[in-house]
Structures are given as C-alpha cells and as structure tokens.
Protein 1
Amino acid sequence: MTRLGMVIDLSRCVGCNTCAVACKEENNEPLGIWWNRVLTVGGGDYIDVPEGEYPNVDMHYLPLACQHCEDAPCVKVCPVAATYKRTEDGVVLVDFDRCIGCRYCMAACPYGVRNFNWGEPVYSPGVDFPVGHQGDHYDKYNPSRLVYMPERPKGVVEKCTFCVQRIDNNEVPFCVETCPEGARVFGDLENPDSEISGIIQNGNAQQLLPELGTNPQVYYVPPYQKKGIVPDYANQSVINANESTIAPGQSIIDLAEENGYVSGFVPPQSKKKGGE
Amino acid sequence: MVKEGYSVSLREALNPRLSRRKFLALLGAAGVTVGAYEILRGSVLKSLQPAYEEQITNASLTKVRTAHVNNCDGSCGLLATLNGGEIVKFSPATFNDPDFPPRICLRGLSQIQYVYHPDRLKYPMQSVGGRGSGQWKQITWDEAASLIASKFQSISSQYGSKSIYIAPYTGNLSVINGLIGVGYRFASVIGASAGDFEGDNEGDSASPAGAVEELGAFDGHELNDLVNSNMIILWGNNLAETDIPDMRFVLDARDNGARVVYIDPRYTPTAVVADQWVPLRPGTDGALALSMINVIINEGLYNSNYMLNYTVGPFLVRQDTMLFLRENDLSGNGSNNYMVYDTVTGQILPYNSPGVVPALTGTYKTANGVSVKTSFQMLSELVSKYDPSTASNITGVPAQAIQQLAEDFAKANPAAIKVGFGGISHWYYGDLTYRALITLSALIGYIGVHGGGVTTYNGALLDAATDLTDWLTPDGKQYNYIPPLSFADQVFNGNIKAAWFPCDNFINQQGDTNRTIKAIEQLDFVVVSDAFMTPTAKYADIVLPIATEYEKTDLLLGGNFFLQYTPKLIEPLWESMADLDMFALVASKMGYGSYFNGTAEDYIGLVLSGFPSGTTLDDIKANGNVMRLKDEDIATSSYQPITKPYVPFYQQSFPTPSGRIEFYVESVVPYYKTGLPIYKEPNEASPQNVLYTKYPFVMITSHTRFRTHTQWDNLAWLLEINPHQFVEINPSDAAAKGINDGDKVKIYNDRGYIITTARLTPGMRPGVLNVYQGHWSDFPTGTVNNLTNQDINPAQSVVYLFQSNTPYFDVLVNIEKVSS
C-alpha cells in the first residue's frame, strides 16, 4: 500500500509564503481562503515579529495546511461521508458533490486548516477566470467523487488535497515544486527507500500534536539549530550556540498549545491563545 | 472627461464572474446566454460528465517559457500555461542546467493578477486639470503621439534637445522594452538626455563604485558558487526575503557544513536560518570590517604572498602627496612604474625590477627625502585605530564577537561575502564600506577563487559581452548623459525642461520626494508610460498605457547567466502598447521613424549580433527559450578563463590602473585625503550630527518580500498576507513615545513626513525605525522617500557611470503618535 506524506524542513523555511501563494494559484482559492498558510512562531500578532528582547530574539516559521491524518477527526464527524480518507494512498479529500456545509469537520480539526465558503467566492480583481489547474477532477480511484473543481460554490468546506489533481497525474503537490528553498519533500511513507522515509527514520522529523493520536502524514524537521559561537549581548561577550538562550529550536510539538503567540493571517477558528 | 476610475473598475471587477471579453466571445461563437455559461462553469454539468476535466485540459492548454523580468535580481524562469487566450498559471521553468534549479517566489506566482488588474491604464490620457489633479481626458494613441512629438520639437528648438530627459528604469530589465531598451535608442536618436542602464541610477551605486575603484570592475560570483564556501557572510543582505530563490544556495552550503553569518541591524528571516546574527549600529559596517582586518593582521592570519603579488600592498605611497611613488619621482625618467622597498638591496626600486623582493611593511625615505610607506603599512596603521574594543564602541558588536568573526573568516578558506544592493550601498559612504569588504577578502586571498569573493550582483546584465552600440546609439547618435540623482538640480538650473518616465515610478523611488515633485512641477512637459496610474503617472501631462511583459516580445539579460527569451503570450490588453511600438509611433511623428521600423525580434537579433559566439535568437528558441551565456559571450573572457560556476578575477588579473587589487585608490585622494578604505561616521544618520537631538532615530527603508521595489503593491493575494504599510519600532522606543501596536504615527524630519501604522517588534534595534520601501505614496499619507535625501557623495564622481547614489538609509527622523 501507499501512504503519501510530506516533510517540511523548518530549518530551511524562511517564511516567504511562496507555498501559500502557489497553493492559492494552483487551486484557484478565492480571496479570504488559504489552504496553506505560513505562521510565525514568535512574539507578536503579526508575521515576522520575534519573541524576546533585542537582540536576544527568536522566531521561526510554520507552514500549515491539512495534515492528512491517519486517524482523521474530520472524517469521523462528517455526517454525509463527503470528507473521506482515500484508502489507496491515505490522502484526505472532500467530495464537493456531497459536502452539505455543516462544518462539523472544521470544529473537529485540531489544526485549523479547513476553510469554509461563507459567501459566493470572490477572486482577484480582474481575474475573471479560474487560475491554476483547469477543469474538475474526480478521484482517480473513486471516479464518482468530485475532489477538485476550480470554483467551489458557496457553502462547501475546502482544504489542502496534496494537489490531488496533480498527484493523480504523478506530479508532486505544487508547494513542493515551487518551494524556493527546497524545504519540502513529498513521497511514500510506506516505502522505506523513499527520501521522505529516510528523513523520518533519522529521527529528525516530528508530527504536530502527536498526543492527539491523529498520526499525521505531514512531518516537520525542527527549526534550525544554530552552530558555533554567537555573540552574547547581555554580557558583551560570546557564547556557544548550544548553550545559548537565543535560539536553539523550540519544540514544534508544543507550539500550538503552550508557546503563546502564533501569528499569521490565521482564520478566527484556528487562532491560538497567547499574550495579553 | 473621465476620472482615474479606480473605484469604478474595482467594483466592476469584484462583481461579474464573466469578463467582457469572454462574454462577447461566447455570444459570438455559440450564441449561448450568460445563464448557460454559468451552468457550464458551475456544478451541474460536472456530475453528468466525469471525463470533463480531461476534455478541457488536454484540448486547449499550451505552455510557453517566459521569465520574470523585474528588478529583484532573481530573473526566474516562468512557465506560463495558457487556456485559449488567457494566461491561467505561472510555474517555475527549467534552465536546462543541472546546477541551476528552477526557481520562483510568491511574486512571480502572482503575476496573473498584475496582467489582468482592473486598474491597468487602458488608453492614453491627457491631463486636463493640472498635474496631480486626477482629471484626465481620454485621447487616441495618434493624438498622444502627435502631442508628444510637437511638444518635444518645440522644447528642442527653444532649449535644445538635451533639455528632454528620458528615464527608462528598472521596472523591466529586458533589452528591448525595458531598462536597456528602446528608451535609450529614442533618446539617442532625438538627441535627448538620459541616465545609464548599467551604472548610474537612482540609488545603489556606492557598492559598484567601490568595486570599480578597487577591483577595476563591478562583478560577482555566480550565486550557486556559494555552495563552495566554508563560511558565508551575508553582509547587510536579507537574502531570504529579497532574492528568495538564491537563498537556497546559502542553505545548501550551510547544510553541507558552511557557517552562515548575517550582519544586519534588524532581525529578519535571514537571521532565522543563519548560524549567527550580528546586529550592529546602522552604517557602521566599515568599522566592523576594519576591526576584522585589524585582528587578522595582528594575529598574522593574512596571506602575505597574496598581498605582495596580487595587491598594491608593497607599493610605496608618498606621505606628502598621498599618491603612489613613481619611478619618475626619483629618476625623472618619465616612468610611471610603482616602487617598492627591495629587502635584498635595501633600496627603493621599481616593483618589476629583476630579483626584487619587496617589503610588505615599513616606512622609508627616498633619496630625495620624501617619506614613503607601503600601502599595507598604511592599512595596518589605519586599522590599528579599530581594535575590537574600540570598534565595539562604534558598532555595538561585542569585542569578542568581532575577534571570533575575524578568526573564523580568516580560517574558513574559502569564505564568501555576499552583499545586498539595498544594504551598505544605501549609505553616503557606501563606497568606502564596500572597499573595506573587498580589502578584508583580499587579505586572505579569497578574491577570484571558488567559494570566495565579495558579491553584490552578477549575471548577464553585467557580464554579457554584447556590444549594444548599434541598438542604443545607432549611427553614432549618442544621448547626453545625466546622472539621475542630479535630476532635480538639473531642472532647477534650467537644463531639463521635459521628461519621459518609461518603466520608472520615478517620484516614488527618488530620494526626497518633495524636492522631486517640486522639480517635476517646474517642467514644461511630462510623459509617463506605465501599466498603472502610479504616483509618478499622476504628475504626467500625458500618460500612456504600456503592455505588461507578457504582452510583448523581449529578451532578458538578468541577474543570472542565462539569456531568456520572453515571447508575447497574449495580445496587449485594452489599448496598451509595447514600449517599442510606443517609441516608434512618437519617433515617426518626429521624423525619426526609420530608426524604429524593426520588430522586437529584429532588434533582439541586432543585440545578439554583438555576441562573439554568434548565438542567434533561433538558437535560444530551439533550446527552450533559455540559454546559458557561452564562455566567449562573457565580457571578461578576454582576460579571464571562464570557470563554472562563474568566478570573476579567476586568473588574478584586475582591470585596475596597476593590474592589481587596489585597496589604496589614488583617484579618491582629493576627496578622502587618503586612498585607504577609511571608516567615516554616517553622513546624516550619526549621533554626532547636530540634527540628532531633533531627530534621534535612524530610519532605514528595507525591501519586503511582498514587492519588487514599487511593483506588486496592488496585487490582491499579496495584500491579503501583508495588508498594511507600517513602521517597525522597538517596544522600548514605542513605550518612551507612548506608542502602542497599531497606533497611527507620524514620522518626520525637515524634508517631510509620512503617516503610517506602528508595528512593535523586538527584532528592531532601539533607536532605529524601518519602513519597507516601495509602497505607493498615497498609502495612507506619503511615500517613505518624503524623508530620504539626495545628498551626493562627490567622491563617487571618480567612477564615471556610478556618480549618483541615493543614501536611502542615511536618514534621521523623529516619530510621534498621531492622536486618533
């Protein structure tokens, strides 16, 4: 069997938002809808704002989209079997012909990555045709299921599909193709020889919120661990980065629940607590 | 009469799901109704016809390779997907080179919104309410061209043709319609004035000037050469935000063990992924570099063999004139030979005398009593004033950190210094700083080796060997050169009477906007050709709608070593026109039509005919619209063997007067009293400036990932992520000023003010403010260049084409909360 997965190497992520915009283009996401967002794990309400006191500050970026969970809460709660996990490769999809817009899935998703079309979709001014993938796409294995349509109507839930219209055509998701820093790896988690399996077997990659037991098929390599000697401004000296309070990577596992500020253009339903 | 029409077009755009073009096409083709069309696009048919997708995708999609031609230095290849007559997708395109991966960023991926933007200028317009009034009359192209022609002719006959200033700039780096393009040809043919595409511009000339002085050429390593470095210093270069795809090479090197150091007053995305962030007081980079040189010399870590043989290190400098001692000074024999102290004979001899073993250090006296020192001796004495603890007081970097940095750099072998255009070059004394960096690199012998060097920029724009004479200055007709930063002065003293700004949002991007506007207002006639009603276009008498890069044919010589053919993908929208056709139309009205009879492809052929290799446009097309520069087509190939990745000065020969690296530069002695790369306090942004008590904040104006300078400021996707203009301020400064996150604030100095929003961030250095440059001046009040200045460093005049550098960061301001 195949289990398609993605590793996002946070040590190479510079928060450029290319993946978010690539997703927006390929999947013709309307204004206000972002299947893929880049959060700043830092110290403010806005992107690119670190935590700490100058110059002892720290931040990193966290691209966030559907985690394609093995045990997906969204699938369990869908009353009409519109959201389903494709058995052939483990990709979680929404059948737009079946979705009734009840939004149970959005309440169930612990990652806040689902978007709802509250109104008629509005697109970029002047762009009055679908961009990105052209035409509808039906699940390769379940041809009655409509899993991509360029203009999703009002009242359906939508989210990252790993670019199902591309992977069904043996192409990688568009965010993987476009990442300027080569921070994304896509492949078969079941194939021990795949690059993605190698990274996970090395013990370098983590899942988000593993304690929930959702077992995502998206993994993250932690933020960059600085090496060598760095300045110590408090004491006008230098220290070894490994002992520094400046920046050894935070545990990404804890970030959503414990670490306070996560900033970005985060939809209200997934905005985490933090700060004052 | 029509107003600018922003609101109307925006409302139109937000409403219909059906464009006028499609609507008409459908009616014409099949006579279907709007209703039927909606059904076709909606969710009715799809369930009935599962194979729908394959039918439409395979039948009507075509893919064409083009490129992103704008001024971020990325020069990404773009693969455009067209569905019928519309561009529906941009993806990264291959360069057909295994060492150079496909590349794209959020800006390139947003280009569809640019092409089809409802605010595009749609037809020529004439101002009817005075400049800046926003009152326009729609006119035809023929009327516009006739108006321009007759106005230019009357101004020419009254004041001379040189009083017309044509200013093509970096809105488009292409060779026909852009920066190197038809605007210069037009200026030459009609005898007008213009700047220079390669050298002088509205800013960024300090680093190039420093490079030309010290190395003889402004040239850099191909950026994938960074993977060969053991240490990379990103010096004032927020590469991860500005030139995002090239950061990949830095990360590849880092993950391969290289140490990445980032020097910048601000904490940025580049700092996030670097091993070490070195924050310092803005504008003190030169002191940091000199201190590193101090450590390297004191600890004997320098490469004395390299200094002796490839630099002016052993050459003697007269302490009276501060010029190099020449053989003629001693013998009167007319020889300009440089002189050295020969350690074998104990005599001062020409450096190239047989058997001479020059001293690198020392102070000597000539037979006629002139005190002389070696250049290296002088450098050593200079840097002795910048021991780490002194430099720490200047820069704010801990002395131990400077020491460590210097040692790491000297031992890395090799180490690269990558500099941003927008960093140290945006300072009044940026030329000196850049020379200090070159000197630091040369000290270890890192110049001209893989993985080393000091690089700001590289690529075909600089290095292609093509001779552009026939294209830009046909029949020996040569435009009159005026440094762009002197534009306002030239207007005020009556030398410029009319101006035409093609692909140039001039008012927005020049320093000291209010002064620029005052100059523009004095002109008799202003033409702006652009895709949008930019702040500059608002001051035009005539605005002309130009076609975007995807609606015209061109060739990109950009910031990498590839020639990229960018064919017209779609017909120009509305009444927009390619720059080439536009200038041709006006030229024909002026009687110069014969110089503009060719097509874009003809002129690409003309440009390529200057390539030594004989590469043709057909060759480029046959290779998939992209081709790497051939070795013989690289300008320096006449004196350098070409290595891949490209490394300048690979043969250790330098087109300087001495043929060596000149860390001692004679030509600047009249300005600096010495030829050494001395450190000078920032011209304006220094606590030593009397203005500092009134304006106690240094304001820098960085580049954001959400724009390329002033472009893409109106694209919906990017605005969703980055909706507001703001000023970054440290929370401690904000607290002292009673400013809270999100407050409206006024930033001001004697030149002007802006109103913007405060963003509190501990990533901002106390005492420093940052406003991302490039936002259009109407948000919400004023462009940040209201605050910058036009102070020209006269020392730059020694390098002819790099005379004007806008010191965009060398600025003092104050900030206060605006009560509601």
Protein 2
Amino acid sequence: MYDLKALYEATSVQNAVELRLEHPEAQIIAGGSDVLVQMREGKRAGKELISIYGLDELRGVSIDESGNIRIGSLTSFSHITRDPIIQKYINVLGEAVDMVGGPQIRNIGTIGGNTCNGVTSADSASTLHAWEAIVELTGKNGVRRLPIKDFYIKAGQVDIRVEDGEIQTAILIPKASYENTFGHYIKYAMRNAMDIATLGCSVNVRLSKDKKTIERARIAYGVAGPVPMRAPHAEAVANGQALSLDLIDRFGLAVLDDINPRDSWRASKAFRQHIAVEMAKRCLFTSIQLAGGEL
Amino acid sequence: MAQYKLIRCTINGEPVERMIDVRASLTDMLRNDFHLTSVKKGCEVGECGACNVLIDGEAFNSCIYLAAWADGKSIRTLESLTGPNGELSDIQQAFLDEAAIQCGFCTPGFLMTAVEILETKKLYTRDELRKLLSGHLCRCTGYENILNAVEKTMKRRLGVPAE
C-alpha cells in the first residue's frame, strides 16, 4: 500500500488541467517510477496524486504539419527506442533512453516524467538539449511552448505553472534541428544497468555537402552542473571548421570552459572534468562517422 | 477516508472484477486479492524485478504500478505458464535443467521477462539477452545459468541449433 491521500485519475488533458487547478497541492504522476519510489521513501508520503498515466492521447511519436517530430509526453522509453520515426531521424535519442534503468523501468518510464523531474542526470535530457527540443505545456490558457533550456530552472525545478493548471503534453524536435544531423550519446556509469549517470554527453553534427566541414556541432551534458547544459565554447570551436583529429582534441578541451561539475559521492569534480573531455571527443568522432565524414 | 475503485481486467486469461483500495500497488492486488504469490515483494522500489509481471505483453515491476491502472489491462503472472495439471512450460523446464534456480525468489520475475523476450520470436545474441534480462537481481546463481536457460529455449523455439 502506498501512503497516498487521494488519487485523481484524469480522463483527458482538459480534465487533467481542471484537476490541477482544483488540487494545486497534488503531485502529477505519469509512469510513477520516480514519484512512487519517492512516496515509498517517505518524501512524498501522504500526498494527493493526479494520475495522467491513462491518457493514451499523450502516447506516440509523429511528425506534425511543420515537419517537427512530436513525442507525446507519456511515450515510454522502450517505445521511443523502437519507434521508426525516432530511428530514422534522431536515433541517438532512442539509444540514450535505452540506457535508463533496466528493461522494466524503460517500459513504465516516460520522457515527460524524465524531464519534468528536473534532474540533471536524466538520460534523455542531454540529447534533448543538444537537439534544441521544445517543451509543450498545456494549461487553462491553452498551449505554451518553450525551449528545453528555459524549461529547466534549477535542480529539481522546471517551468511548469501549477497556477495555470499546466501539464507537459509533448516534446518537439524542430525540423531545422534534426535535418541531416547525426548524433551520439555516451553514458558513463559504474554499472551497465540500473545505474544513474556519473556523466552523460550527447553530441550531434551536420556536415557540409562534401562531408569535409562541420556546419553545425552541438553538445550537451547531464551531471556537468545542477541542470543539463550545452557547451557553447566547444560548439564555437567546431562550427565551420574542416574535419581533423586536431579539431576533435580542441573541441574536447573547450568543454572545460563551459561545464561546472561538482564533487559528489559518485565521483569527484576532477574525475568528471577528465571524462567530460574524453566523452566529448569520442561523441564527436562517432557523430562525424555517422554523418559520413572521414577522419 | 479510504478510496476505492472498481477494476475490470483480465488476469491469466480470466476476466475479473474487483473493488480495490487506490493505495494498493499491483503487487498488493495480485498477492492479496488473487493469491498469485509468484509475484514476490522484494525491494518494492522497482530495482530487483522480483514482482515483474506482463501487462498487455510488456514486462513491468508491479510494485511501482498502481493497482488502479490495471483497469482494462491483460495481466499475466508465472501461474499462467503451467498447464492444467501443473505441467511445466519449456522455459520453466529449462530453468530446472540448467540449474538456473537456487533460492527461487527471483525466478518468477526472470521467467516473465523471459516470456516477453521469447514472444518477440527474435534471435538475440548473448549480449543482447544479458541487457534484456538486466532488470533482475539474483544473489544465488551468478546469472550465467539463467542466461543459458533463456538462450537455449530461444534457440529451441526458433529451430536454431544450440552451439
């Protein structure tokens, strides 16, 4: 038995918004692999829950009228990994969420829950930052869309307006972001399964037509600071430059101007800085290869 | 105030209906209301996999799944694998033959994930199987015999010769 005060099950997005306005103290629960565990630990004990898990309209991946990839917030990690649209246009996201927890967690865990949690270690978050995802929120005033970097406010806190009854309804990957773009994610953790990243790094590149120059490189980290973050100095080093191994080295070192990891029981700051450089280099190398570039 | 919800679902092929306390996990419901004690209470935080069951064909840790969500779902537990007179299924027999069981606590959870894997009818490599089974903890066997049992059953079902 869970120590929950009341359970309100939303029957539609509109109903979820109404429930949220009616019960502003209540916690939204999607798949529950974080919320229920925290409730068991006593952190959220005695709370009311608004369950949106039954809203099938928030499941699935599609391409909208503007060509953006639309991922319903309740789409589970395993369904993202297996989705043909994801595999074709942004396979790295499917690979990244295939490193969350273990198989059963990937069947229940949702991309909406992973991001609404606001934790820096979320395996989806660095890739979503690196691909400039847009978060869609639905509330009493309709739909609000904001870039994922603005969605994260601080550790454990995201920009969801409870007073407007907002819930996250989708994550969008803009067409300009995914076209001709190839990426790679590395999760550094102590175990291969059921572990939280010591550091996560996601890189993607778009090469020139002749595959000799990097048109656009983007890189983002999880656990390199209190929230997932891009590394703009490193991107500036690579953008518009001819492919070379030396460029990859300089790209890797430049991330140290951007990231701000901390000492924690999982790893020291110095160790995280060390692997951040190495992971940036390896991710860029693999991304260039996936894009058809030769090194 | 206790809060209740009427659940209609299918458990091991049987349509059932039950009034449940909304605070119950699916583990609570399956064990207490339906006496399906193959569903083990282990860590109760979704880490060990002992409570794993199939819901609409996918593996879920029932300890972190609200019983209220079971409405309209088809749930399968280990009890569904045996025949009418208690005959073992091929995957259960393989666990015995390969000594993939010692204390047995993790076994029902492993078996239901194995069923999910086998029902995809795909041929996986040893490394892929290792990843697919990684949501279960076993403190006795060292995992190798469990991998052997699943791999051999997979190959037997697909008609692929064992090495």
